[in-house]
Amino acid sequence: MQSKKKRFEMGIIIKTPEQIDGIRKSAKLAAASLDYIAPYIKPGVDTERLDNLINEFICDHGAISACKGYGDYPKYCCISPNNVVCHGIPSPTTILKEGDIVNIDVTTILNGYYGDTSRMYSVGQISQEAQNLIDATKHCLDLGIEQVRPKNTFGNIGFFIARYAQMKGYSVVWEFCGHGVGIEFHEEPQVDHIARRNSGPIMRPGMIFTIEPMINQGKARVDIDKNDGWTASTIDGKLSAQFEHTVLVTETGVEVLSDIHDEYPIR
Question: Could you give the angle at the alpha carbon of 178 between the alpha carbons of 55 and 185, nearest 5°?
């Protein structure tokens, strides 16, 4: 049995090789579900249908959704169009239309291990300003991943994300953040997307967490729907975008566990 000192670093779980392998498989399944759903995202489709299709795919591969039943969350994934920042609840009355942008966020539980990832989709032809926001948000994620390596601080993830987003004229949502993941849905540490340089805990090999910047066209603040208690939207009605990966701190750098397209070399 590992000692508590070896297994934890300031409350952050240092995963074992067996746990890492299980989390990797779950994260790749979550990513595969996002590939699977892409052809169904088109004008006229309702988000509940997308949610049900994703759930069928997950179940067919021996896993379950971590979202359904988390607190009182009623659906299998989060689908957040346009000005919805996160936690959009799929519904038969939310129908995608030409020009929409939409984030789909999936967390799987496979053999007891959690994998978490999200990405943006375009519905038909979108505006150039919407595309610019999507591109900048993806670059923010990439900048955050570049900071993942042993002995670096978690604050540098948020520092470089925020610096770039603000340089492009966008704002960074600070009311939601990334988080440790793998053994539980949400673990330590909190991974902020706007932070002071060289602040926060030190990264150690075996730590697994998400980076999931939410970038707004307008103001950074969000408004939580008072009726459902989940849906977070921009306070000014402007667009928001988000990308997310589950990452592992390796002995020399980072492995993006939810990367199934070899976009990020293991280092």
Answer: 45
Instruction: State phi, psi for 110 to the nearest 5 degrees.
Output: -120, 115
Q: Rounded to an integer, what distance in angstroms lies between the CA atom of residue 121 and that of residue 89?
A: 17
Cα atoms in the Cβ-side hemisphere of radius 13 Å centred on 108: 31
| The residue to which tokens 């990797």 are assigned | 24
Q: What is the pLDDT along the chain (267 residues), one digit of tens a residue?
A: 233 333 456 699 999 999 999 999 999 999 999 999 999 999 999 999 999 999 999 999 999 999 999 999 999 999 999 999 999 999 999 999 999 999 999 999 999 999 999 999 999 999 999 999 999 999 999 999 999 999 999 999 999 999 999 999 999 999 999 999 999 999 999 999 999 999 999 999 999 999 999 999 999 999 999 999 999 999 999 999 999 999 999 999 999 999 999 999 999
SS3 letters across 51-74: HHHHHHHHHHCCCEECCCCCCCCC
Q: Convert 147-183 to b/e letters by CB count within 10 Å (16 or more is b).
A: bbbbebbbbbbbbbbbebbeeeebbbbbebbbbbbbe
Residue 78 has phi, psi (to 5 degrees) of -105, 130
Report strand pairing: 8-9 vs 171-172. Answer: unpaired
Rounded Cα distance between 251 and 72, Å, is 38
Q: Collapse the DSSP code of 200 into the 3-class scheme (helix H, G, I; strand E, B; otherwise coil) and give the result.
A: coil
CATH 3.40.50.720 is right for the domain spanning 11-256: no
Task: Kindly list the domain boundaries of the chain, sorted by start residue.
Answer: 11-256
Decide: 179 and 192 in contact? Cβ < 8 Å: no
